[in-house]
Amino acid sequence: MKINHFVIDNTSKELTVEFFEDISKNDTKLSFEFLRVCSDSHQAKNKNRKPQLVSHKKNILLNTIECVAKHGYRLIFDDGYSVVLSDDSFHYLIIERQQRWQDYLDELQASGHSREAMIEIKQL
Fold first, then answer.
1. 3-state secondary structure (DSSP) of residue 4
2. Domain span at residue 86?
3. How confident is the model over 23-77, as pLDDT tens digits?
4. Quick one: which of 5, 123, 7, 124 has its CA closest to 62?
5. E strand or H helix that includes residue 64
6. Residue 24 sits in a domain of what CATH number?
7. What tens digit of pLDDT does each residue of 82-119 get?
8. How far is CA 68 from the centre of its chain?
9. Are 28 and 94 in contact (CB under 8 A)?
10. Would you say residue 124 lies in a domain?
11. Count of domains in the chain?
């Protein structure tokens, strides 16, 4: 599946991924937090390594998306983390979103970590 375009919504903290193929728009929204915590696990799965648990990212923001030639798209988050995802990677994240999110929540609870930010930052 090829991506047509992205819509970054900083108000709802969601990325809408629109494909050329017809998919319901509600099914293509991914939260910034989900992308931040689950994109690494997707890459680790592809490289046969154990992903590291990422916590405290509930308020993460997606700063920008850059095209990386034929490799895909680089997502750059406000904590400095970046990840390159292909069209197929986005498609699998969308398909597996509910299971990946539940697995993440379960692992987070078992570890005693939290989704909440460690310190609250207010921009004036």
1. strand
2. 3-111
3. 665 568 999 999 999 986 545 455 556 668 888 999 999 999 999 988 899 999 9
4. 7
5. strand 62-68
6. 3.30.2020
7. 999 999 999 999 999 999 999 999 999 999 888 987 76
8. 17
9. yes
10. no
11. 1
